[in-house]
Amino acid sequence: MLAPGLARHSAPHVPTPSLPSISTLLQVFEIVKEQAQGHSLSAPLFALIAVARLLYQRRQAQLEQLDYRSKVSPPVPEWNVVAEDDTKTLSLVYYPEEEVREETPEEDMESPLEKVLILVIPGNPGNPYYYLPLMQELVKKHGRRHEIRCLSHAGHVMPWKNHNRDFTLQEQIDQKAFYVKQRLREEPTLRLVVIGHSIGSYITLDIAKRFPQNIAKL
After folding, report:
1. Which PANTHER family does the entry link to (predicted)?
2. Residue 52: which domain range?
3. Which of 16, 27, 91, 146 is paired with 120 by a 20 to 30 Å CA distance?
């Protein structure tokens, strides 16, 4: 559910498995019919059961794809200061969860894991809720090992938070760099995986130029 005052944007299309075509069903029917000739039950019954099973399996796969977002908990919304003048932007974040490493030798348990920030820079409009399916897919595939954060553009979400002020592209770029700089000041060894979409890709390149030593992947 979107927070009050957020503009609604349709989420990116998620491909789902298509149901088998009529020709595929007929082929399955004929194959099973031939294989069932030697059975006491009628061949058409075997064929119908096989087709029904195929339809059921494909439908289950389709429902799993459609319902994939419900398997991931919602992210934490936060407001972050991104400029010296106290400009704020909304971010959605999945924080890493502590994992019990039962099979890890005791001597390795004390060595700290490399901290990674997966930072998503949106396009235009810069509403982080538009990228929620992407963030949830990252969580599904890679777990909660690293922080995953989508940082909105100032003024694109709840503009009254910044007194309805308009921001230039350069200001948006500098604000992302300001946020990253603050994070690196707190954690100098933090590794950055930056994902940019549309104009966010341009901002991502700027981040890479400013902080090359901390970039793990773009």
Report:
1. LIPASE, LIPID DROPLET-ASSOCIATED HYDROLASE
2. 27-69
3. 16
